[in-house]
Design goal:
The chain has one helix and 16 strands. The protein has about 200 residues and is mainly β.
């Protein structure tokens, strides 16, 4: 196993440990490669008959989106824009719903085309979960992984986008919900915002 692969695995193990604990301890600086973009205020995509609503996802903020979340008049979709970009999913219909702490990396199945996030007649795996969509894309020929947090409301017609992030180190997976704090501490984004460290709960 190469040193690069070993380092990547070690980073993911630390991320997963933090997911179980809820936050990293002070002083750890293992999330420097995560680039997080909060969506503030959160964007709500509202489904109207014949009038799609969309939100572009530009992971590296270079002005060219890697994908989009679309709430059409029929269903909600997660899309990617080729070349070099794919979604984590299975079959040809559903984007994978990653729970907080799940690893998004090369082991995740990918699928092409437009992928349903939820549909009242099929598998509504994003409804009320606040889970994450996984993306794989390329920057300068290098593969990167990212997540988008999406909460689909119980009525199946609203999708709320609260933020997205990607791992800037090539060929390195990212934990769903992992974000860098200004102090370089990695926490997990949850609900409408990130879970913060509180000094009163440090004991």
């Amino acid at each position: 196993m190469s040193t690069h692969e070993t380092n990547n695995q070690q980073r993911l193990m630390v991320y997963l440990a933090a997911a179980g604990l809820g936050a990293f301890a002070y002083g750890q600086d293992v999330s420097a490669g995560i680039i997080y973009t909060p969506v503030q205020p959160a964007v709500t995509l509202v489904q109207y008959p014949g009038s799609p609503s969309a939100f572009n996802i530009d992971f590296d903020n270079d002005g060219t989106p890697e994908g989009a979340i679309i709430n059409s008049s029929v269903n909600m979709q997660a899309r990617f824009f080729p070349p070099g970009r794919t979604l984590a999913g299975s079959g040809s219909y559903y984007a994978t719903s990653f729970a907080p702490g799940a690893v998004i990396d090369a082991t995740a199945d990918t699928t092409g085309g437009a992928n349903l996030m939820t549909n009242p007649n099929y598998n509504a795996n994003f409804v009320g979960q606040g889970n994450y969509i996984g993306y794989r894309f390329e920057i300068d020929g290098n593969t990167h992984y990212g997540w988008v947090q999406v909460d689909v409301t119980d009525n199946l017609i609203n999708a709320i986008i609260t933020g997205y992030a990607y791992e800037s180190t090539p060929d390195t997976g990212i934990v769903a919900g992992a974000i860098p704090e200004p102090t370089s501490l990695a926490l997990l984004a949850a609900g409408a915002g990130a879970l913060g460290l509180r000094r009163g709960n440090a004991a």
